[in-house]
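Retry 2 of 3 after timeout on previous attempt. Resubmitting structure tokens to design endpoint.
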């Protein structure tokens, strides 16, 4: 992108709550503008590989770990380098001061958890349990993108409704299914599981619920290339949970 290029100012993804909310950024706006310039310049010379190679290179060179912010880009339509340039740039509102992302609630490490109808007395060694505000999350190792989140019970009578899970996947990831997708059903340790994945995108999501109680659900997020191995780790975690 030429340095004198006027950045697009339309805001497609800001939600209206009485008045338009500000887009919250994970780092400085000037760095975003430099990123857009960098991507535009590079993509004019070489077609996008539909990955985050260029974005990762640029942010890493500026001391930013892209992996920590991948959810921000995906949720705002940036599923690869060219989509970051096309979609994320367009999210910047006109004539508004952009606020940085507020600090999240402090994460507290827990060794066990006892809630109504949900209990885990020991955490498998590969997992860490965190509490942030009223939210509980199991993280696999040091990778914050591989996680299991405790959520309210998903009350759906047809657990095999592919259309429902596709819409849930698209809502959570901010991505759209382009071609083939797959739904995988499984049962383990009195839990029912459904996994939605597609070859088009990296995120793979699994929803888990108790087979006999309607009190809570879990959602497991991992990457397509890791799904098989991480699913074994998920099942090890579920073995420790009682409801």
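Retry 2 succeeded. Sequence:
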């Amino acid at each position: 992108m030429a340095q004198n290029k006027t950045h697009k100012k339309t805001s497609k993804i800001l939600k209206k709550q009485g008045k338009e909310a500000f887009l919250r950024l994970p780092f400085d706006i000037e760095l975003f503008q430099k990123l857009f310039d960098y991507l535009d310049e590079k993509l004019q010379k070489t077609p996008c590989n539909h990955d985050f190679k260029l974005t990762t290179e640029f942010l890493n060179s500026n001391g930013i770990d892209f992996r920590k912010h991948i959810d921000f880009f995906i949720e705002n339509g940036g599923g690869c380098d060219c989509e970051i340039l096309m979609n994320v740039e367009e999210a910047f509102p006109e004539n508004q001061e952009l606020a940085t992302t507020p600090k999240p609630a402090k994460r507290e490490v827990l060794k066990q958890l006892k809630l109504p109808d949900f209990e885990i007395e020991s955490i498998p060694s590969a997992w860490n349990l965190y509490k942030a505000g009223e939210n509980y999350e199991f993280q696999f190792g040091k990778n914050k993108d591989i996680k299991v989140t405790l959520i309210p019970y998903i009350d759906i009578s047809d657990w095999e409704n592919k259309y429902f899970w596709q819409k849930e996947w698209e809502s959570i990831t901010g991505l759209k299914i382009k071609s083939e997708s797959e739904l995988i059903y499984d049962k383990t340790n009195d839990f029912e599981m459904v996994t939605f994945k597609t070859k088009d995108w990296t995120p793979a999501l699994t929803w888990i619920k108790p087979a006999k109680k309607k009190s809570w659900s879990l959602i497991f997020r991992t990457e397509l290339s890791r799904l098989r191995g991480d699913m074994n780790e998920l099942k090890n975690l579920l073995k420790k949970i009682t409801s």
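Attempt log closed. The radius of gyration is 20 Å.
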